[in-house]
Amino acid sequence: MVRACRNRFTLLCSVIFILAFIVGCSDDDIPQSLSEATSSSHQIPDRSKESGESSEAETISPSSSEHNDVKLDATPEGPEIAAEEEPSDDPINSLPTRPEVEEKGPEINNLLDQLELINREAESTFPYSADEFCGWQDLDGDGLTTREEILRREKVEGVGWWYSRWDGHWYEGEGELKARYFDIDHIVSKKEAWQSGAHGWTYDQRCQFANDELNLTAVTYSSNRSKGARDAAEWLPSEASGTCFLMIRVIQVKNLWDLTIDETEYSRLRDLAIGCEPNIPEIPSPPREPTWHLDETEEESTEQSSTPPIPVDQTNNESSNQFYQTANGIDIDLYDANANGDINCGELPSAARPVIVISPGSDPYRLDGDNDGIGCED
């Protein structure tokens, strides 16, 4: 019995030993096989060696269906940061303001803004001549010169009269578009324009300026001669509404034509802008009778000629003026008594009158009121 148990024990031990040996051999092979498997499964194939192409990372097309739902956020999510509180004093509203501008409202503020856009500098000293500008033209080809266009525009419906904004006079005229004793004034005079930048323009540009209807208005003969070539710092209309009208037009014209302004005129226009309404003043209702008649005009012309015409040496002074031929053949520019670059009939001696307008419609001194080709007719 004992012997049988020993035999069984020996057999059992042999079996255990064999099993242990087998298990031990298997454990030695597992790490190597696992290492090889892991290495082969994580290797990135070098396709550049196979195809000869670059091994740069492939880009994902935005239209790829696999990534249509992917949204990239440039800023990582995190706790919301509270914005800093604005200071109690608004820096814009704390800027200094002009109280008078606020009182006038947005329209006058815009007018002052337009004034600020005009370049401020001293007037040029380039010599001026009226020949640098053309006379009245028919720019739109309707058969009317610019003078006639202004007379048609400003003729008051119902009464058929004209109102002079510079002095408040009403003028009946001689019928249709004939207003012999009404001038068409350049609000910004040609000489002022020349000194403010027009000296650098072409002749065609100066011709366009001379016929720009925005810069023109019909006024009495005497008020136009009184104004001459002076700017707003040197002359203002006697009529209050005319002063505001002049201020608005000067700002508009100088902005439109990119003309400069000197400091004195700037200060005057700014003061006027603050004191005037922002819109073009309406003309008053016409009176029962015109306030300007031919006999009064003749008296005004006599008053103007109280300053004797300047004596002119008639030797070697034959006219070379392209616009006018005086009766005595003397160059009309030599009769500019007040040296303002503009000449009126009162400055001409009787020997120089009448004046022939060489080219109909080209009348820079506005001497031919009825446009018949002859100016300063007695």
Summarize the structure.
This protein has helices spanning 2-42, 47-51, 99-117, 146-154, 190-195, 203-210, 221-227, 240-256, 263-275, 294-304; strands spanning 162-163, 170-171, 182-186, 216-220, 324-325, 355-357, 374-375.
Tell me roughly what share of residues is in helical segments.
Answer: 25-40%
The coarse overall form would be: elongated
Query: How many distinct beta strands?
Result: 7
Oligomer type: single chain
The average pLDDT value, as a whole number, equals: 71
Helix-strand category: mainly alpha
- What separation lies between the terminal Cα atoms? 175 Å
Radius of gyration from CA coordinates: 47 Å
Strand content: 5-15%
Strand order of the largest sheet: 5-6-7
Helix/strand order, N-terminal first: HHHHEEEHHEHHHHEEE
Report the sheet with the most strands, covering strand number, pairing sense and barrel closure: 3 strands, antiparallel
How many helices? The count is: 10
Low-confidence stretches: 26-106, 295-319
Explain what you see.
The protein is mainly alpha-helical and 378 residues long. Among the domains are: 99-275, no CATH class; 307-378, no CATH class. It has helices spanning 2-42, 47-51, 99-117, 146-154, 190-195, 203-210, 221-227, 240-256, 263-275, 294-304; strands at 162-163, 170-171, 182-186, 216-220, 324-325, 355-357, 374-375. Strands 5-6-7 form a three-stranded antiparallel sheet, with no helix packed on it. A two-stranded antiparallel sheet has the order 1-2. A two-stranded antiparallel ribbon has the order 3-4. A hairpin with a 6-residue loop joins strand 1 and strand 2 (170-171). Helix 3 (99-117) crosses helix 9 (263-275). The chain is elongated. The model is unreliable at 26-106 and 295-319 (pLDDT under 50).
